[in-house]
Amino acid sequence: MAKKLKIFLSIFIIFFIIIFIWYQNFKSKIIIKKDTIITINKWETFYSLAKKLNLNNFFYKIYLSKNPPNFELQAWKYKINSWSTISEILNSLNKPAIAKEIKLTILEWWNIYDIDNYLTKKWLIKKWNFIKYVTNKEKILKLSKFYKFIYPELNTLEWYLYPDTYKVNENNFKINKLVVKQLDNFEKKVYNTILNKYSKEKIQEILKLASIVEKEEKNPKNKAIVAWILKKRLNNSWPIWADITVCYPHKLTSQECKMVVSKYIREKSKYNTRTMLGLPLTPISNPSFETIYATINSKKTPYWFYLHNTKTWKIYYAKTIEEHNQNKRLYLR
User: Fold this and answer.
1) Which of 33, 254, 308, 328 has the fewest CB atoms found within 10 Å of its own CB?
2) What is the pLDDT of residues 277-298, one digit of tens each?
3) Domain identity same for 231 and 267
4) How far apart (Å, rounded) are the C-alpha atoms in residues 210 and 331?
């Protein structure tokens, strides 16, 4: 019995020594032989890297248990230098990722919820972080010291986040840097060219109306006519009846709004132009220069109504409610 136990212990010790030697070899083994860029996805953890790096899962788990990283793994692209061991690879994932400039295209009819959703899907921010920044009263107050068109009493920068294509550092993205670029763009392209001659109240009226025109009409040829119709309704104490405004207080993206607009159509709010007179509390998107210009220089017509064929997006105008109802019967099928 003692002899068998001795043999068993000897085998166990030999096995342990072999495992120890293999583990030491694992720790010192060169895993990456040339400079490599690896992408860490947002669902990945340190433990899931074994498959990505083609590591021995058993020894890798032992290594992590004995050497737990003191940082969180972030979704990004990282550069791993040539001749890197496992410890050097993990250290590389704690360093700033390699700089990579990308283009972000902010579309004309987007609101802050669209932009936040877009940046989240690009993995540049956590959801709602952009919204939190552009609705932060303290930050708005600070920005008002640098931009004449930003007033301290504002609760959102929805007015001035100019839609355009912007270059940003994908690996070191900062919300404040994007916002400043948008504000600079608005100042250069809009405020300094066509808005600086107007009063604060008039600028706000123009931007609110332009934000609706931007969402209501995509064809540049029709924007000035739609703007005129909405102005005429306002000036005659009509509700302007722009369905696109009803979703805004519910913090929905443009796509989400399309699915539920009928749900809120009769709701009373400071944005629902179906149930209120006047313009919404704030703009509902960030309009382009083209749309703001068309709103200011609206084209006089005899029309009071318009609607779009939902399949072709062609617009149909009407002078009377009877003509408008006839258009509904013909084109809203």
Assistant:
1) 33
2) 999 999 999 999 999 999 999 9
3) yes
4) 26
The answer to whether 96 and 59 are in contact (CB under 8 A) is: no
Q: How many domains would you assign to the chain?
A: 2
pLDDT at 317: 94
User: Do 84 and 32 touch, CB atoms closer than 8 A?
Assistant: yes
Q: Is residue 51 part of a domain?
A: yes
In this structure, which long-range contacts are made by residues 180-187, counting pairs with CB atoms below 8 Å and at least 24 apart in sequence? 182/106, 182/286, 183/143, 183/147, 183/150, 183/157, 186/149, 186/160, 186/161, 186/162, 187/147, 187/149
Structure tokens at 299: 């084209």
Domain range enclosing 119: 103-301
Q: Is 208 exposed, middle or buried (0-12, 13-18, 19+ CB in 10 A)?
A: buried
Structural domain contains residue 60: yes
Q: How far is CA 298 from CA 145, 148, 220, 227, in A?
A: 32, 26, 12, 6
Tell me, what amino acid is at 172?
N
pTM, two decimal places: 0.72
